[in-house]
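Take a specimen:
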Amino acid sequence: MPGAPGNSNAKNPLPVLRGLSNKGSFENGGIISSHGYYEGAEGNKPEMVIPLTNKSRAIGLMFQAMSLMCVVGTISSRILLLVIRFSKH
């Protein structure tokens, strides 16, 4: 496959793309523990990735997710607040 028209330095991306392995889909959730390429927002449904190694960012994203799902102020968010409070000790 030649480079893009007018760009003699362009390289064929197909060998690189064929070498990438899609590790799968997490449409129903799950934990990702190895580096890879993953599918997200399957069917154009919003999803969120929460980093388990960055506590403050994870907590912020959990609250954002609860807000998007309209559960802020419910029992779920109160439980999360208790977990956060007791995890600091």
In short: The longest helix spans residues 55-68. The chain has three helices and two strands. Residues 14-87 form one domain.
